[in-house]
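Before the break, one more example. Copy the sequence into your notebook; we will annotate it together after we see the structure.
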Amino acid sequence: MSPYRIDITLRPPVRFQASIPNFTMVTMSNILTILLINSDRASRTVIADLLSRCRRPVEVSASVASLQEGMKYLESDTPPQVIVLEAQSIAQGVRDISAILANNPHAMIIVTSMEKHPDWILTLIRAGAGEYLTTPINTEELDDAVERTARMLDQKQGVDETRGKIITVYNPSGGMGTTSIAVNLAATLSAKGEMTTLVDLNPFSNDITAFLDLTPAYTLSSLQETVGQIDASFLMGIMTKHASGLKVLCGPEEVGAVVGITPNQILNLLTLVKSQFGVTIIDTGGSLSERNLETFNGSDIILYPLTLTLPALNNARRYLKALSRLGFGPDRVKVVVNRYLPKDDIRISDAERILGVKSFHTIPNSYVEIKESIYKGTPLVVGYPRSLVTKALTELTSRTMAELSNGSH
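Here is what the structure looks like once it is written out:
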């Protein structure tokens, strides 16, 4: 029996519809040629139909039951650019990937399999596959995989394309809402169809894992375990997918493990996420270490959340001055007043006078809703679409993307 549903209605995860502009990624006009290899004829029909719905124009140049049948296409003068390959076992998958790349080293491979075990995913990614999709295939997952594959192909062929943007959310101290803002920015962008990833570089804890109720098979620690540069295939293999479709690089379980990541590893990571995603959201904190400075240097904009308390403002004043001296002034670093209450003793005008910079945005206080969203493992903007905090976070997303679109960063 086919592992694919033939007569189905694909239901993607419920997505929050925010009233913000669509941030459309730049796409190339090239039509991707695809070789489809799957032992089941009905499965091939379903996959071909899903491919026809992708944003990126594709052409299924051949649909065959085995790699042996597909070799004549791989050995032709115009071999297909992408191979969608069924893997029925790890050993068979590795052999087929090796054979494909031996004939066409520039080919991009999307593996499909019923197996969800992390060992399958990482082994086949490391063997040379660019993407791994479990069956039955979701339309949006295939669409995103094709888009990322096209980007990787362009990168291999040296095509100069628009790079993704990086937004870092930073405060040196914990408790200022950096993770909450980062998670909800990423969720809002992902809900609008932007290819978004969320990266946890916060040295205090791996809070993103808790906020999204994730159980990652791999974390940021995998970067430290590698020797030399990582590639896009490896990066995609260690990411965790949230139910909303958001790709997440989770922080390590070990306390303080983020600190051991070198600036060179950060540079390699940022280069890769820029090539694979439209927008990357980074959650970080701690001192102005080399790791953080490398992160800031690769970021297009830095959001600095704070609360209206004297200790928080005094600390922010010191750090904002230090950041400015290091070349990260108000054009790159934007102050976000979090958990704001209109009746606070300290007003926003007071904060701006203390800091010497204008506030970029304000997010109201809503402890109960945020607490419940964390308990449910659902971003606030998804679980509470009518909340005033959701409205503020949506507006923050819109304003931040508008800043980036202005071309001043």
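Residues 9 and 90 are 30 Å apart (CA to CA). The first strand starts at residue 32 and ends at 37. Try to locate both features in your own notes.
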